[in-house]
Amino acid sequence: MARTQAADYDDRREAIVEIAARLYGETGFLGSSIADLAKASGISKSLLYHYFSSKEDILFEIMIGHVEALRASADEVSDLPDSADRLKALTHGFMKLYANASYRHKVLINDLDKLPVERRSAIIEAERRLLDIVDGIIVDRATTLGKNKGKRRALTMLYFGMINWTHTWFDPAGEINGDQLADMVVDLFLKGLPS
Question: Which residues bind DNA (predicted)?
């Protein structure tokens, strides 16, 4: 007979993912065992396996959840008619997610190669869709780049290079808040684009 799911199954599963993101972010995926995760979650290993069949499943959930949140943030601004406004809103949304999910972001950047190939491919494809969104903004903003896919991709990667590593040095309680940092990124990026 199949085991029934508790009413709070999804909430408990998400709580495990959050705890795993923190644990993997602090010690790395390979430096964290199922026993470590069960202890940090306050549950037994067998109960942990009720929610996830493997450590890799949890890693995938951390990553896909983060990339899907970034995509949802991008979708929220897709209807803005002005490309500069779209980039500004997109950057603010991404920076808020990075600040509120710094462990998830760190795990995505540092441990993608720990996923099995098929799951890694799913994450890479989701990331590629984010790159395409920024590429579209660049084309709208700098129409002269429309046919120069290589240059557009380089600019897209430079944009993500500015924001993807902020989790390693940015302190939201410091002299510059997240909105100010996002504005700095947008200003620097847009002023560097050919018109």
Answer: 33-52
Q: What stretch of H or E contains 181?
A: helix 178-191
Structure confidence by residue, pLDDT tens digits, 132-182: 999 998 888 887 887 888 998 999 999 999 999 998 898 888 999 999 999
Task: Look up residue 104 and give its two tokens.
Answer: 């998830």
Q: Residue 109 is part of which domain span?
A: 56-191
Cβ atoms 111, 28 nearer than 8 A? yes
Rounded to 10 deg, the angle between the 55-77 and 102-111 helix axes is 110
* Cα dihedral: 136, 137, 139, 141 (round 10): 170
Q: How many Å apart are CA 1 and CA 86, to the nearest integer?
A: 52
Q: Is residue 35 a part of any domain in this protein?
A: no
Measured CA to CA, the distance from residue 103 to residue 28 in angstroms comes to: 10
Chain centroid to Cα 7, Å, comes to 28
CATH code for the domain in which residue 127 is found: 1.10.357.10
Mean pLDDT score of the chain, rounded to an integer?
91
